[in-house]
Structures are given as C-alpha cells and as structure tokens.
C-alpha cells in the first residue's frame, strides 16, 4: 500500500456543489418537534429567529441541496480539506488496519464549525438580516460565526459563558480579531440575564443561560437573527461537505471504509462525515458508522429516547432525541464541545433504528490516544477529536489481534492549539475519569417534559 499517498488532496473545483440531505433516505419518518402543549410546531414558529431558506432546509426531504456559489467561494479558503493516511500511527500500533483521517482543523477557526457558520451567515444576509446573535461555551462556535459574519459583512454578538470568558481569553481574542462583539453571559442587556444576575450576582453563567440571552435578543429585534452551531437538521446538512469530500478522496485511492468514526457532541461533525456514507448504506452497501461520546456524558449509549428541550432553561421546542435530561450538568471534562445533554434528532433517529452505532470512552484514555496521535502524525488534536482517535486506536488493536486489515476512517474535527492547558493537566497526572454519573442522570431524566416519543 506504499503507493498510496500520505495526503490525498482534491482540487478547489472538486468542492461539492450540493449538500447531502439524509432526510431523503430515512427508513421511517422523523417525529416532529413539539410546542409546549405537545402539538407539532410548524416552520412559522421559527421565523422570528431564522431566515426562510434555513427553515426550508430544516424540514426539507430533498436528497440534494445546492450550495450557493458565494458559500463555495468562501469554502475555497480552506476546502477541500486534506484526507491523510495515518501510516505512522498504523506502524506504532502494529496494526494491519489502514487508517485515514479527514482534517477539519485546516479551517481558519481550527474546526469543522465554519462549514455551517459560513452558510448560515450567507442565508441570513440574503434575507436582509444585518446582525446575528449566538452563544458560545469554550469559544469554538463563537469564533467560527465571528469569522463568517466578517466575511459576509454581518455584525455578530456572542454571549460567552462568563467562566470561559475569564478562563479562556484566547478564543475571546479570536472572536474580537474577526470583528465580532463578545460579552460575558449573564449580561444585564437581556431579561434572562438580568433575572439570573438578580438571583446570583456572581453567576459563572452556563450555555443554557447564554442561549436564552442570544435567542431573546434575536426574537426581539427585526434586524437580528440567531445562529446555532450543532443539533439542527440544517447544521448537519451543511457539514456533509466533510463526508462528500472524504468519500471522493478515498475513491481516488481505491478505498472504501469498513468503519467511519467521529466525536459526537451535538452530532454535527459526526453527521457531516457519516451521512454521505449512510447514503451508500441505505442503498445496500455495508459500512459501520460509529459516534464516539464521553463516558461522563453518554447521551446515545445511556440516555433515553424522549422529547426534551434543546436548551437547559426550556425555551426551545421539544425535540425527539436521546437525552440525559435538559438540566443534566455533565462533569467538567476538557472536551467542552461534547458536554451537551442531547444529540441531533437526525442522529438519534437513525441510532434508534439500529443504523448507527455509538461507543463511550473515558477521558484519560482519550488524551493517551491523542498524545500518541500527536507523536506519530504530528497534529495536536482537539480534546473532542481525541474521542474518535481513542475508538479508532481500540479498533485498530482489535484488527491486530484478529489479523483483519480493515479500512478505518475518522473525522479529526479540530486542532487542540487552544486546549494546551488540558494537555498540561494530562501530563501532570491531574486529569480524572469521571464515573458514569448514574444518579445525576436518573434524577435529570425524572424531570423530562411529560410527552411520549416514538
Ligand atoms: C464543537 C466541536 C465538536 C462537537 O460538536 P458536534 O456538533 O458534535 O460536531 C467536536 N469537535 C470539535 C473540534 C468542536 O469544535
């Protein structure tokens, strides 16, 4: 196999011209989102905060959705991203498996998130919107949307969870460098923020509070919309450029994966790389698609399939998904992007139908795999990405034990250059594995809204 190049590159002209919509290939219809009274919410309910084109994509069952030329033009700044053959990692493991990874850390913001940020910014501008609000935890999504807003001339305001704002100043600096405004949440600019501050003046903030602030502002201003970085159907749709490119890159070297892996927080990069291969699976081809989640926030592997709120506070419509309960607070692991209580309804639906797989991995083992990866392949992965690497390493070792030369593909969703403090803690032996917090999850599941799902 030494005739296979290390880095499989596509030409800019080979950036996909259409996104793949997995909703066209579902084995059974998706249950709809529900309003507070348990009745399906129509697309109109979203019109206060999303532009018509994105609402249309949210409910579309068309298999292919054209990518606007202006969006492809921006994608050219970093797309197509490279697909690498991880030959040095394979050698270090002594595995007969062939390991490939798609590198989404090649984007300016260092993760896959700009793939959808750019599309969302463009559709909003086309709809006459001038400002976007959003929330961010550690700052990956906030920085991606700041970049996208800058490229299309939209003002962006990011409500950043206060504790991250104070502890992770460099993502905040990136957001400002790309011309967006970033505020520590809770603020006193919104009803939601003022309420929290009145009750606890020193509140460290939370993603739930930041979402409430961003949505409240977007809903109350005609020139302002809201943008979400994961979970929703249109976000997963935009991310399918990852898998569409990867499939073509593998085809170029005569390969097809036996298994595809990605870290799974809200499900957008997993859906992004896995869904185009799901299209082949739906057409009868054999391929295993594996979502990798933290053992401390085991949404798919230990959660319940139910209708639950998308946010902590209970402002969003009820979504049909695997959930740990909307007010479940996972332990403070370093993969901040994987601490979400639910998962994308599309991922959950296919998982429930037995068409996707999921594994949960403990934190320390993910850093062990990430450091092995950095020392063999060179790239220092984001802590989120280390989850996929752990699962791939485990599978490659299984292949070694069984003498199976499987082809394994994973999404390297981002680099870890802003997460070096977490690596320091790993090297100092300060990282912990958090036992599966069974009691906390049971308690949170007891507080699910009382609506039956599937
Ligand atoms: C946000 C993020 C994730 C998790 O989000 P998904 O929606 O599940 O993709 C994973 N990796 C990186 C690098 C991220 O920034």
By CATH reckoning, the class of the largest domain would read Alpha Beta
Tell me what the CATH architecture of the largest domain is: 3-Layer(aba) Sandwich
What's the β-strand tally? 15
Give the fraction of residues assigned to helices: 40-55%
Could you describe the largest sheet, including whether it forms a barrel? 7 strands, mixed
Structural class: alpha/beta
Name every ligand kind in the structure. pyridoxal-5'-phosphate
Mean pLDDT: 94
- The stretches of 5 or more residues where confidence is low (pLDDT under 50) are none
Strands across the major sheet, in which order? 1-4-5-15-10-11-14
Can you offer a commentary on this structure?
The strands form 4 sheets. Strands 1-4-5-15-10-11-14 form a 7-stranded mixed β-sheet, sandwiched between helices. 41% of the residues lie in helices and 16% in strands. The chain is built from 18 helices and 15 strands. It folds into 2 domains: 7-15 and 67-110 and 234-445, Rossmann fold (3-Layer(aba) Sandwich), CATH 3.40.50; 113-233, Rossmann fold (3-Layer(aba) Sandwich), CATH 3.40.50. Helix 2 runs antiparallel to helix 4 and helix 8 packs antiparallel against helix 9. Strand 10 (259-263), helix 12 (268-282) and strand 11 form a beta-alpha-beta unit. By secondary structure, it is of the alpha/beta class. It has helices at 52-59, 69-75, 87-93, 114-126, 140-152, 162-167, 169-177, 191-199, 207-220, 233-239, 241-252, 268-282, 299-302, 345-352, 363-377, 383-402, 420-427, 438-446; strands at residues 7-8, 18-20, 64-66, 83-85, 98-103, 131-136, 155-161, 181-185, 224-226, 259-263, 288-294, 304-309, 318-323, 357-361, 407-412. The structure holds pyridoxal-5'-phosphate. Pyridoxal-5'-phosphate binds at residues 111, 113, 140, 230, 263-270, 337-338, 382, 384-385, 413-414.
């Amino acid at each position: 196999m030494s005739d296979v190049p290390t880095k499989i590159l596509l030409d800019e002209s080979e950036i996909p011209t259409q996104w793949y919509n997995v909703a066209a290939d579902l084995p059974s219809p998706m249950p709809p989102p529900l309003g507070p009274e348990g009745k399906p919410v129509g697309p109109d309910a979203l019109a206060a905060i999303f532009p018509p084109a994105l609402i249309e994509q949210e409910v579309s069952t068309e298999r292919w959705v054209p990518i606007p030329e202006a969006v492809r033009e921006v994608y050219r700044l970093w797309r197509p991203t490279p697909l690498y053959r991880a030959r040095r990692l394979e050698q270090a493991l002594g595995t007969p498996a062939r390991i490939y990874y798609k590198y989404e850390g090649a984007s300016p913001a260092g993760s896959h998130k700009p793939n959808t940020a750019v599309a969302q910014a463009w559709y909003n501008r086309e709809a006459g919107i001038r400002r976007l609000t959003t929330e961010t935890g550690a700052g990956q999504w906030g920085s991606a949307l700041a970049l996208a807003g800058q490229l299309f001339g939209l003002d962006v305001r990011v409500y950043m969870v206060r504790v991250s704002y104070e502890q992770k100043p460099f993502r905040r600096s990136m957001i400002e460098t790309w011309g967006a405004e970033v505020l520590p949440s809770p603020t006193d600019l919104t009803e939601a923020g003022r309420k929290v501050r009145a009750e606890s003046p020193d509140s460290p903030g939370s993603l739930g509070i930041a979402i409430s602030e961003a949505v409240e502002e977007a809903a109350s201003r005609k020139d302002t919309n809201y943008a979400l970085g994961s979970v929703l159907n249109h976000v997963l749709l935009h991310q399918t450029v990852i898998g569409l490119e990867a499939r073509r890159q593998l085809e170029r070297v005569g390969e097809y994966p036996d298994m595809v892996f990605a870290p799974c927080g809200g499900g957008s990069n997993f859906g992004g790389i896995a869904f185009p291969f799901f299209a082949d699976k739906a057409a009868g081809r054999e391929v295993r698609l594996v979502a990798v989640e933290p053992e401390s926030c085991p949404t798919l592997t230990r959660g319940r399939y139910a209708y639950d709120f998308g946010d902590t506070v209970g402002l969003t419509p009820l979504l049909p998904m695997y959930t740990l309960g909307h007010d479940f607070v996972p332990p403070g692991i370093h993969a901040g992007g994987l601490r979400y209580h639910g998962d994308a309804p599309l991922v959950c639906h296919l998982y429930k139908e037995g068409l996707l797989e999921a594994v949960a991995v403990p934190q320390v083992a993910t850093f062990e795999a990430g450091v092995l990866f950095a020392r063999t392949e060179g790239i220092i992965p984001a802590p989120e990405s280390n989850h996929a690497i752990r699962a791939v390493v485990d599978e490659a070792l299984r292949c070694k034990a069984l003498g199976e030369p499987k082809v394994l593909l994973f999404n390297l969703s981002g680099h870890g250059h802003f997460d070096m403090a977490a690596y320091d803690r790993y090297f100092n032996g300060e990282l912990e594995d958090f036992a599966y917090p069974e009691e906390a999850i049971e308690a949170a599941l007891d507080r699910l809204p009382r609506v039956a799902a599937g």
